[in-house]
Prior knowledge:
The structure holds two protein chains of two kinds. Chain A is of the alpha/beta class. Chain A has a single domain (41-212), classed as 3-Layer(aba) Sandwich (Rossmann fold). Helices cover 54% and strands 11% of the residues of chain A. The longest helix of chain A has 29 residues, at 20-48. Chain A starts with a helix and ends in a 7-residue tail after the last helix. The mean pLDDT of chain A is 92. Chain B is built from seven helices and ten strands. Chain B has helices at 20-38, 51-62, 83-90, 106-113, 115-118, 147-168, 186-189; strands at residues 43-46, 74-76, 96-100, 121-127, 138-142, 193-200, 205-210, 213-218, 230-234, 237-241. The chains are: A alpha/beta, B alpha/beta. Chains A and B meet through helix 2, helix 4 and helix 9 of A and helix 1, helix 2 and helix 6 of B.
Amino acid sequence: MSAESTAFLYPFIEGDEHDAASLLADLATSAAAKWDQSSRLRVETLEHLDGQLAEVGAVMARCFEAGGQLFAFGNGGSATDADDVAQLFTRPPWGEPLPARSLVTDHAVLSALSNDVGFDVVFSRQLEAHGRPGDIALGLSTSGNSENLLRAFAQAARQGMRTVGLSGYEGGRMADCSELEHCLVVPSDSVHRIQETQAALAHALWAAVQHAYRPEGAP
Amino acid sequence: MTVLRPDAAPAGGADLGASAGLCDDLARASLALARRFAAGGTLWCVSPSSTFHAHHVAVEFVHPVIMGTRALPAVVVPAGADLVASLRATVRPGDMVVAVAGAAEAEVAEAMRRGPAWGTETVWIGAGPRPADGAADHVLWLDLDDPLVASELFVRIYHLLWELTHVCFEHTGLLRPDTCEEEVCITCSDEGRTAEVVSVDDLGEALVRTAEGREHIDTTLIDPPRPGDLVLVHAGSAIASLEEGR
């Protein structure tokens, strides 16, 4: 039973509650249930997307082989995932270091764009400045509805970049975005559980790139 | 080229199931954080080798994804900062420090062991070899070595920490700070409190920082301490150095 479903049964729910033991027991039970829920979602999603991960990994590997670089972006927790991706590609625990950058790290650029234009353009405008044909735009969103990601994918497509998205729920607007070539969806309606599996998906995507990467004639 | 599948079972045969110990530790850490937040404490988030984790923890508490949950003060200690010096300058008694870091990260260990002197509650999240016993108030640890799987599960751990902390807020009667119920209370009877040396004069008197504030103590019973050292204080005197080799 989760803590939420039993909360109304607590005998001392009011301000005079003194016994922490029953609360601690319920919290631990709730943690175990959510842990298992997250584990199942992670394993099932990775299995379900196995073929798509290999396919997208190969597409990205071809970009890197041709000298392309990766731009990762997202909002909130997904912004931290973008940082994780950039760190993993450039400083991997094993395999080839590959050129990747997070578009959420430069507070001068983010605040300038937000102040002067609006937060919807913070990623598209940076892609306009940095992106070249053959580069990769990787956007992460739990809802799949972030306007600044959709604009970034459109901008990336205009510039001849490859576009990859990680989304949640049923994909959101990203699932219907014609400029987004590859959309990997974590089928859940919990932002936390989606984000936990997206972290695994991002890592699996990196592993798929490493698997497919063949740097012919690389220095 | 070696292909490592993130969905493969981690090395050592462990699966991804949560140990009962980890769930109990999460429960206790969450109640401790809820009590500190309720009393006005700030959560300082630290992850020197993977700063994105510190940012993720902080944004989780400041701007919760679930509408209607209260915004709580959580701050990232910037990457590249002198961790101990930054925290020393900014933390106040009643605050919390959460680290996502390996047991071998010495500056994290240094920040954590100052918890009793600074008055901070410490939570250390990590994987692989465990920190020494008592290295932090709450050690939320995974018994696996794959750094990527571990990193994914850290997200799960701090999400749960946030979720359970908010469950605790529904139990207002349990959010009061711990009171001293035992006959001999170490804190109240001044049996031995941890203090961090701020400065020492030629006569062996030192200005120290404890969870209760700054005070002057005598240090002539021990070898001369240096600023930054931790000492054990009893009845106005340093009775032991907590630094190795001294």
